[in-house]
Design goal:
Layout (H helix, E strand, L loop, with lengths): L2 E2 H12 L6 E5 L5 E4 L17 E3 L10 H11 L4 H7 L5 H11 L3 H23 L3 E2 L7
Parallel strand pairs: 1-5
Antiparallel strand pairs: 2-3, 2-4
Helix pairs in contact: 1-5
Length: 142
């Protein structure tokens, strides 16, 4: 059974959240997704960490959707600020400064769309690489 692509993307978002230890897994036999982390009260299978039926979802960082994607967006949309963008990501609080830069240039909404499209592409690629089936309205195998 295939999982929904949106559910897979959500699991990757969950695994990427910096609020404590968050992990998400998919049962490769039936497409069921399990979440492990602070304040998650859903039961998980006893063999979640021992069985090869479960595959842990990567974080967005693991998929190259962090600093590299942000710099790529700056290079494509406001290239005159590329050096400033590199400088932002050398310091703490980079993401909030990055968003402030985008807001000042009227590019914040464009960033969210860009990031969403990149997540979808990376999710599909990850599924293909790991033989995970998904349902995206056309019943594709990724």
């Amino acid at each position: 059974m295939a999982a929904k692509l949106d559910d897979i993307e959500w699991a990757i978002e969950f695994a990427s959240s910096g609020l404590g230890d968050h992990e998400a897994f998919i049962n490769i036999d039936n497409g069921e997704i399990y979440y492990v982390g602070d304040a998650v009260e859903e039961p998980i299978p006893d063999d979640l960490y021992e069985s090869d039926r479960y595959l842990m979802f990567p974080s967005k960082q693991d998929l190259g959707l962090g600093k590299r994607l942000a710099i790529q967006f700056i290079a494509e949309s406001i290239p005159e600020k590329l050096d400033f963008g590199y400088d932002i990501f050398r310091r703490r609080g980079a993401y909030s400064k990055f968003k402030a830069l985008l807001e000042s240039k009227g590019k914040l909404e464009s960033w969210y769309k860009y990031e969403e499209a990149a997540l979808k592409r990376a999710t599909i690629e990850w599924c293909r690489d790991n033989d995970v089936e998904f349902d995206n309205a056309t019943q594709q195998k990724c």
